[in-house]
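Demo today. Your pick:
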Amino acid sequence: MEDKHTGIHISLSLEFMGFVTFIVFLILKLVGAITFSWFWVFFPLWMPLALDLVIFLVLMAIYLAISRRN
């Protein structure tokens, strides 16, 4: 997203949004406003890495399947 008047470019990546969500969950957990387990509090931090790993493994499986066919 770019503001046409100032030329400032704003990019909201999955990692950044995950970090912001983690901070919000952490604060809410520490003040007792939510009863999520710690697993779900930390989930936004490792979720992008896990998603990247799944995509990599799927692509490797496809590559191996194609290479074995030839």
User: Anything to note?
Assistant: The chain has one domain: 14-69. The chain has a mean pLDDT of 87. The chain has two helices and no strands. The two ends are 45 Å apart (CA to CA).
